[in-house]
Amino acid sequence: MQKIITNFTTYIILMNKLLYIAAPAVFMLASCAGGPQELSSPSGNIKLNFRLTDAGQPEYSVTFDGEEIVCPSTMGFELVNGENIAQGFKVDKVTRTSSDSYWVPVWGENDSIRDNYNAMTVAMTDKSGVKMDIEFRVFDDGAAFRYIFPEQATKTIEIKEELSEFAMGGDYTAWWIPGDYDTQEYEYNRSKLSEIRSFSEASKIENVAQTGFSPTGVQTSLMLKTPSGKYLNLHEAALVDYPAMHLNLNDTTMVFTSWLTPGRGEAKAVVNTPFKTPWRVIMASEKATGILATDIIYNLNEPNALEDVSWIHPTKYMGVWWEMITGKTSWSYTDAHDFDLATFDYSKAKPNGTHGATTENVKRYIDFAAENGFDELLIEGWNVGWEDWFGKEKDYVFDFVTPYPDFDIEELNNYAHSKGIKLMMHHETSGSIPNYEKHMDAAYDLMNKYGYDAVKSGYVGHILPKGETHYSQWTNNHYLNAIKKAAEKKIMVNAHEAVRPTGLARTYPNLVGNESAMGTEYRNMKPSHEAILPFTRLKGGPMDFTPGIFTMDLSEFVPGSKERKLATVANQLALYVTMYSPLQMAADLPENYAKKMDAFKFIKDVPVDWSKTIYIDAEPAEYIIAARKAKGGDSWWVGGIADEKGKDYDLKLDFLDPDRVYTATIYADAPDAHYLTNPEAYVITTTEVRKGDTIPLRMAPGGGVAISIE
């Protein structure tokens, strides 16, 4: 997500920020290398202590403003061969460095990001001669560590389990979802750490038996709050060639231990030296907004690996998707089942009459999207195979290049381009990764032929080959390889059901979105879910949440449906500001937007790329209020969302330019709006504002507010 500063204007901007890129200062501590070591953040507010225990096991702890937020926690690995890389270490050398620099993202929440930390690498050798380093970095908003295996006689290490501990300083409040090797599509629980077990057992969470977790297994990013009111978050960064890390809690001692996602073999990870593990990250802040604002995950990833990023662009899109999700139309062309796709003749099949991705229907969407200034249109269900894919665990379902008889791929792409927009490709792999990899080159080449520059990929179903899971080392390698191959073809990727992001979009900025959490397709989510995702799932990268639903009662266009979207219209508008992504969808149907074109104006106008972001106030799973300045302009955009209780707030416009007068257009919940009883009631008002003015906000239960300030 980084690009080289190449023009004078950017140089001046960064100079005005007092930019300097400090060459790392390196010095050695030879005299006391074997003793305890302390590493402080640049401001000194966070301190990390390291030592070897009497048994020679690495151990660390972390304090934040004098409070021990991570108590002494041991480190190491359990190996498949019965030997461990955990004890009997001696310290060979301690190297310290510091760094303070800025980098410029290709897309993002701010036009530049500061990377300021102090670092320490402890080089060690264990009793069997295995060399292992631990690198620590401490920022003013968190601490991180990773293991480094230098090149050595031991070429291959088969890891049965990583033994990294995170010993909590008390019975913290946690916002968590259960451990699962295949999905993050859960609503979040809020409980004390000591209550996680009872919550899991009461909910009869099935993954406990399926995965081997205890009932206290949770996924990262894990949001926490201490009794003293400090906010913490545990996650990982730069997940490359390694399984995703879950956390298993000992709810007697309040110690989390890393729990790696398994694959087919006994070894959860097989690494070849030299090798660096992902970073293990502890974020810390006095305020909840500090967790939202931190860039520590991106800073721990490698810089942009792509030489040319000119083809990568933030995108606002629509799609023939919501009508399929709600049941108005279907993905499939015919009702035939259990056939051999390689020999099935679609030209002789009877159409089911409910197929959504038809040439005629897609043209209707193209017209509406183009008329309203959208960039692209996502088409799902365009390709053969949808009749026989779900839950079949078949090696061959889709070929990703053959359209249905009623989908004219060439005509539709020409039609879209003539209207000034592009079509967005969809590749549902059905979890059969070998089949996708077999067809990937041809699929990407088809995209290049017709001018597609973005793909939504999906991994619904059990992963094939059998024994692999969605977050195992082998599967994670596939996700990254698909992103790299897409970059070679100048294609942006929005991967659904893939591993949760860990900041790799900095290194590969064509990774413009992921799902990897419960999104809008789950119509009955509690409003609090939208107010916890920016604290958890979004810490690793943007989410394709698909907001913008205007018609909450789905029976209006799917007769007999009892489903409702639990939100207000103002809430759905605000998500374009509070739920950051460079890839934003207007998810509802054109006919539903046509009924509320005054509110739809906000979706049409709101940017998807920003030069500055301020998180004004927030509390996890309760409310978020954010303000963003449009990149390349002077306008500001404010979004606020609230949980089931609603929220009143006085918004002070301290962030505006003192020399300007602005027009604020406020899209608010009506006085009687409520996500259950009156979700589509909203009011739009316009007023003149200046820096220092205050706008009183009322966010209804499950509601929100969206403001353009221009």
Secondary structure class reads alpha+beta
- CATH class category of the largest domain: Mainly Beta
Tell me which CATH architecture of the largest domain applies here: Distorted Sandwich
Largest sheet: 12 strands, antiparallel
Summarize the structure.
With 710 residues, the protein is α+β, with helices and mostly antiparallel strands.
Write a structural description.
This protein has 710 residues and is α+β, with helices and mostly antiparallel strands. It folds into 2 domains: 2-299, Distorted Sandwich (Beta-galactosidase, Chain A, domain 5); 306-516, TIM Barrel, CATH 3.20.20. Helices cover 16% and strands 33% of the residues. The protein is built from 13 helices and 39 strands. The strands form 6 sheets. Strands 1, 2, 9, 10, 11, 12, 15, 16, 18, 19, 23 and 24 form a 12-stranded antiparallel β-sheet that branches. An 8-stranded antiparallel β-sheet has the order 3-4-5-6-14-21-20-17, with no helix packed on it.
Topology readout:
Blueprint: E1 2-3, H1 8-16, E2 27-28, E3 37-40, E4 46-52, E5 58-64, E6 67-74, E7 77-79, E8 84-85, E9 90-105, E10 113-125, E11 131-139, E12 142-149, E13 156-162, E14 165-168, E15 173-176, E16 189-192, H2 196-203, H3 207-211, E17 217-219, E18 222-225, E19 231-237, E20 245-250, E21 255-260, E22 269-272, E23 275-276, E24 279-285, H4 288-293, H5 296-299, E25 315-320, H6 322-325, H7 359-371, E26 376-379, H8 409-418, E27 422-428, H9 433-450, E28 454-458, H10 473-488, E29 492-496, E30 511-514, H11 569-578, E31 583-585, H12 590-594, H13 597-605, E32 610-619, E33 623-630, E34 636-642, E35 647-652, E36 662-669, E37 682-689, E38 694-699, E39 704-709
Parallel strand pairs: 25-26, 25-31, 26-27, 27-28, 28-29, 29-30
Antiparallel strand pairs: 1-9, 2-9, 3-4, 4-5, 5-6, 6-14, 7-8, 7-13, 9-10, 10-11, 11-12, 12-23, 12-24, 13-22, 14-21, 15-16, 15-18, 17-20, 18-19, 19-24, 20-21, 32-33, 33-34, 34-39, 35-38, 36-37, 36-39
Helix pairs in contact: 7-8, 9-10, 11-13
